Amino acid sequence: MIAVLCGGVGAARFLSGLLSVVAANDVTAVVNTGDDTELHGLSISPDLDTITYTLSGRVNPSTGWGVAGDTFTAMSALEGLGGESWFRLGDLDLGTHLYRTGRLRDGASLSTVTAEVAASVGIGLRLLPMSDDPVRTRLHLERGDEVGFQEYFVKLRHDVPVSAVSYAGAAVARPAPGVLESLTGAELVVIAPSNPVLSIDPILSVPGIGQVLRERRETVVAVSPIVAGAALKGPADRLLSELGGTASAAGVAHWLRGSCGTLVIDVADAASAGEIEAAGVRCVVAETVMSSPAVAAGLARSVLQAGGAGDGTRSRNR
Amino acid sequence: MIAVLCGGVGAARFLSGLLSVVAANDVTAVVNTGDDTELHGLSISPDLDTITYTLSGRVNPSTGWGVAGDTFTAMSALEGLGGESWFRLGDLDLGTHLYRTGRLRDGASLSTVTAEVAASVGIGLRLLPMSDDPVRTRLHLERGDEVGFQEYFVKLRHDVPVSAVSYAGAAVARPAPGVLESLTGAELVVIAPSNPVLSIDPILSVPGIGQVLRERRETVVAVSPIVAGAALKGPADRLLSELGGTASAAGVAHWLRGSCGTLVIDVADAASAGEIEAAGVRCVVAETVMSSPAVAAGLARSVLQAGGAGDGTRSRNR
Q1: What ranges do the domains of chain A cover?
Q2: Is the pLDDT assigned to residue A310 strictly greater than 90?
Q3: Are B309 and B187 spatial neighbours (Cβ–Cβ below 8 Å)?
Q4: Is B59 within 8 Å of B68 (Cβ atoms)?
Q5: What mean pLDDT is predicted for residues A126-141?
């Protein structure tokens, strides 16, 4: 069994690679919900949906999120009425949000709804939100105010300096059913190449989850989302700098070293291996820029080997 | 000033005719919200939307509700996930529901949102929900259970016997701002050709509204939605029968006689005029089946004349 802590696009691509070398039944994804939001009365879970769309082969390949070929008819009508439309919800995508919102209103938990959606679209792995309780990532901006994740990420295009990040609700959130058991029982825990501040830390902030990882850090392998000093996508680089870390593979090692014993870094950062090992984190060099399914599969094999979880072919299922 | 008590499709067509012979500024529509519902977390106000779509020329002409040329992409995705899709929400239509729901969640009242939507699409008349408080029409079925309006109307296709109807929340609902003033101050109040049980009675059930109409019934003109013993649309005929009334123009006169002094009936029912007058309701015979804009305009003129509110050309605005 392998458990993966996941954010959005990078994690989705990593999972896609992992499922090409490991049976889906053997994988549990524990997904960040700190980005979740409510818009126009609808409950939106961006990271869960990105993973669902990616693993079901329906993701928009040019963005890495949303549904391929989606239309924006409802958005255009909303815009015509003067409604807020900076968060673009495609019509097909809306179907997911309508389903989720309706079920949540019926009293179903987010983890139940997530399992239903995963089953409907035929995703074999176990997909768990980190918590059924609301945790909301809040960005405290240098200019003085505080905004929610989506306002920072989408509306402000993460182009504003951040002075602090908090995870509202985390202190009283409980891990979703199955999360702690999966993380405790897994042969290997992987921290996917996701933003450490915005995708991984919210998961670790849920009481119990961070502790499990700290206790088993020797069998936790993280993949650096920073390559050659830059984030492949999003603001991980500038956030690490703004919050007192370093925008580099070594900076990721320092940021996550309490929770992982091994960090997989890109070949472009091979020279940082020494610094990372010196920080007490084993370092594995691999090709991490998942520009093709083959690279993603290769990265998954490297992670499995780094974690001692087989040679990447033992449980190959296709 | 003319105030019109309105339900859905019939009322929308009547208003359309009225606005061709009276300046829109002189008209206030007080609209039934007993059909309102919440689906997938979205706040749906079918009668308000039917009127908005009709008066802005965007209504689906074949159904009388929904937006012409709408697509159902979100619905198809929802269906794919196993979601409830018996209430068909088109993509353009969804834009309206997203806007309304978002604004209501922001704390705006339904009457504020309704005015915003009317202004956006350029409807000149004053469009008021009967109340900003929730009133929900409930159908008590002969088979023993109780269902909401949309489940009765759409899901069960109003094809089940009803033993009673109630308006949940009506006892504590307040008329929306402007409703009582409009009804009190209007030269003429019109009860549009809408279902007496499902569209008009919910409005009359809001404390204060029924009383105003009873007090000024001599200057209230209703239009019968029953022609030759049958409803032009929907279950008005069978409901009148099931609830102890009669499915006829005379039956409408009996049902509404406390609230209107005059009833406009169709030429097909001219023979009922005596029975209606005997029930204490003045009777006017006109062409009421609004098969074209010209007929709708003619009906509006007949109603104005019946109410003594001018000859129907005095305040003609186009």
Answers
A1: 2-36+124-140+167-306
A2: no
A3: yes
A4: yes
A5: 98
Distance (Å, whole) CA B100 – CA A261:
50
Task: State the DSSP string of A115-172.
Answer: HHHHHHHT--SEEEESBSS--EEEEEETTS-EEEHHIIIIISTT-S-EEEEEEETGGG
For domain A2-36+124-140+167-306, give the fold. Rossmann fold (3.40.50)
Of B74, B101, B117, the CB nearest to A91: B74
pLDDT of A318 above 60: no
**Helix B91-105 and helix B73-80, axial crossing angle in degrees, nearest 10:** 80
- B112-118 own/partner pairs: CB under 8 Å, 24+ apart: B114/B31, B114/B45, B114/B48, B116/A81, B116/A82, B117/A81, B117/B48, B117/B52, B118/B52
Confirm if A227 and A269 have CB atoms less than 8 A apart: yes
Mutate to test the interface with B, among A85, A94, A103, A150 (most CBs of B within 10 A): A94
Residue B318 has pLDDT above 50, yes or no: no
Q: Which CATH superfamily is domain B2-140+167-306 in?
A: CofD-like domains (3.40.50.10680)
| Residue reference for tokens 């409408």 | B252
ipTM field: 0.89
Joined tokens for residue A316: 């190959």
d(CA A8, CA B161): 51
8-state DSSP, A186 = -
Q: CA-CA distance, B308 to A112, in Å (whole number)?
A: 62
- What's the sign of the alpha-carbon dihedral A234, A239, A241, A242? positive
Contact A30, A179 (CB under 8 A): yes
A223-261 residue pLDDT tens: 999 999 999 889 999 999 999 999 999 999 999 999 999
Structure tokens given for A77: 């009508």
Mutate which: A44, A79, A91, vs B, most B CBs within 10 A: A91
Identity of the amino acid at B92: L
**Tens-place pLDDT, residues B10-60:** 999 999 999 999 999 999 999 999 999 999 999 999 999 999 999 999 999
Give A137: exposed, middle or buried? Use CB within 10 Å, 0-12, 13-18, 19+: buried
For the stretch B65-109, pLDDT in tens is 999 999 999 999 999 999 998 899 999 999 999 999 999 999 999
The pLDDT of residue A316: 36
Q: What residues of chain A have any CB closer than 8 angstroms to a CB in chain B? A: 38-43, 67, 70-71, 73-84, 91-96, 98-99, 101-105, 116-117, 120-121
Distance CA(A213)–CA(A188), nearest Å, equals 11
Tokens of B131: 């109340």
Residues from chain B contacting residue A38 (CB–CB below 8 Å): 105
Could you give the CA distance from residue B290 to residue B266 in angstroms, rounded to a whole number?
A: 11
User: Using the 8-state DSSP alphabet, how is residue B60 labeled?
Assistant: -
What's the pLDDT score for residue A311? Answer: 47
The DSSP output letter for B273 is H
